[in-house]
Amino acid sequence: MTVRTGESAPRGATGVSTAHGASAHGGATLVLADGRVFRGRSIGAAGTTVGEVVFATSMSGYQEILSDPSYRFQIVTMTSAEIGNVGTNAEDFESDGVKAAGLIVRSSRPMASNWRSQMPLRSFLVEHGVVAIEGIDTRALVLHLRQRGAQIGVLSTETDDVAALVARARSTPNMEGRDLAREVTTKAQYAWTEAPSALQALPSMTPSMTGAGTTGNAAATAIATTAATTATTATTATAATTATTATAATTAKRRAGSGGAETEKPLVVAYDFGIKRSILRRLVEAGSRVVVVPASTSPEDVLAMNPGGVFLSNGPGDPGPVTYATDAVRRLVGRVPIFGICLGHQILGLAYGGRSFKLLFGHRGSNQPVRDARTGRVNITSQNHGFAIDVDSLTRNPRVQITEMNLNDDTLEGFDVPDDRVMAVQYHPEASPGPHDASGHFSRFVRMCAG
What is the 8-class DSSP label of residue 413? Predict the structure, then answer.
């Protein structure tokens, strides 16, 4: 069985017609299926791309968004006025490459200003074959999408023939009824062993970073400051020995995660419908062993691994046509603990008799307020989905307990089925990008898996 960690992403985007490596610094045209036209400047690869035009309200995290498989077949509009300030790097990929169909920004930065940056955003877009545009009124575009709904669009640096671009947009099938999970799932089973780095680790999950009032960034700063002081005061030989020991210890920790010997940790089998690497890291950090399987894996094959629990990942598009996953989940329910996030939440909802529907413009961004019905606490969450489960249809099942609701539009954000040891949330508790208000779900699930 293959073992994977966070290997660097290969070059080139998928599903986009581009001249790879070719930069288009001239004009670019965005045309929506309803005929609305926006003209601006190209900041990415030369080419033409088609997809559902959506918007994300995160102020940053553009690299994680572009590489998140949940954005498959979507041209993403960033609502923040300026994008690209912190550049890009090898560590912040959420998959093995760029998955979004294109990028729309008001203004991009040609230069990056961040110590982690390895490549400016514009160079990153060209290198990965991403068609992108800047200089349009993103406020007008977002208002249009909020009023008319997310819709198919075409973004091109090759032509400004509006009639031809509109025709292509209108002839492209929309998101409903498309099984995009099959397009992004892994082709083969593999084990994941990498825990978060020191910068990614959560204070609540890392003993060395806990403490009253301590945040992840503050703790990381403290670690960096201590390391710098030690390196300055130590002799060259001592510093070299310390660095070697620290590197070995860090590597061991990232591979083993927290929680004791590897063989004592519960095994979590994760269905990959478009899984993010940060989710896998959180599962390891919470103290589990993780094996990732293709979306179409049979429940019999999963149970043959004797897992402590099953995780249902995020993923793109409509849960309706992913019938093979819904059927598999129905056969797993009650036999092992199950935790579903995003598309996994929707698949669980369908398995328990719920009905899915398409939102007008979806929830995308890292500032979505969710109220926990059990405690009254409001968590600010990271989200990325265009479909949801109708809460009224799900409550017809008396075994289902509704746990969380969205405060913006009163849509379903979470439910539990205690008798079956099932938990599900619509949002992304791993964030990446976003706040860590709801990160405790991973520890709760792994404790459930451990019995």
Answer: E
